[in-house]
Amino acid sequence: MGGVAPKNIIIDQDFAMRNAIDEVFIRIVHRNCRWHIMKKAQEKLGRLMADDQPLNKAFKDCVDNSLTVEEFEEKWWMIVMDNEHSIGCGLWENRECWVPLYYMHDFFPFLQTTTRSEGFNVVLKKYVNPNNSLVEFAKQYTVIQEKVMVSVAKEQLEIVYKEVETYSFNPLELQVWGLYTDNLFSKFQMEMKVKTDYRCDTLQNVSFKVGSVRGIIPKYGERDYHVQANKD
Fold first, then answer.
1. Mind listing the pLDDT tens digit for each residue in 105-158?
2. Does 172 fall in a domain?
3. What digits encode the pLDDT tens for the residues 13-58?
4. Which helix (H) or strand (E) holds 119?
5. Which domain holds residue 94?
6. Which residues of 173-208 are buried (b: 16+ CB within 10 A; e: fewer)?
7. Spatial distance between the Cα atoms of 160 and 172, rounded to a whole number of angstroms
8. What is the pLDDT of residues 159-171, one digit of tens each?
């Protein structure tokens, strides 16, 4: 890493790792993996956290869509009062370690979970098992690494020879066009389309009202926002 520490780290709720990270990386933004926490909640509450159940929808809305601490707390305690089953006081006590609201000013691009790590764990288990020797593990890991490098090379080749269409003349989209892989660029485009579905009206010199053009924005609902900005 050339002596450069990472800015952000996402891990599961491993206390030994947390203590080590807090000791070594003093200025890092350190959070827990939302994916692991939601999975544990689903395992604990079983059928109540199925996709078609009101508790699951209310829980995800509370965690994913709350924009202020007050909104999050109001939604959380409404869930607690409306359901006989506790969703876990441990989740509440550690809320600042995993709820996205508390990381709005930190950069976690397209990554609310450790899905990438989990995906690699699945791949790893296909090639190695606990009975392998260190030599066997090293050999199998080399095979995995070669497969990964082939996949990376394929994506890089597609950047050069495959024409990806832009949907606007926005300088920001044109800037990243040709730099990102197709997969990442498509995610970027989707986020950009959502963000540009808002109109901005001036209220005062540095105060603006930002509202949805179509009434409802995917993932963000029908909220309007009051924004203060220094135009200079």
1. 887 765 544 455 556 666 777 788 888 888 988 888 888 888 888 887 877 777
2. no
3. 788 888 898 898 888 888 888 777 877 777 777 776 676 677 788 8
4. helix 115-127
5. 8-103
6. beeeeeebeeeebeebbeebeeeebbeeeeeeeeeb
7. 20
8. 666 667 888 888 8
Which two structure tokens, joined as six digits, stand for 58? 């209310």
Is residue 28 one of the residues assigned to a domain? yes
Q: Which of these three, 56, 81, 103, is where a domain ends?
A: 103
Query: By the 8 A CB rule, do 225 and 210 touch?
Result: yes
Of 100, 101, 77, 73, give the one whose Cα is nearest residue 87: 77
Residue 19 falls inside a structural domain:
yes
Q: Which of 103, 125, 149 is at the close of a domain? A: 103
> Is there a domain that residue 90 lies in?
yes
- Count of domains observed in the chain: 2
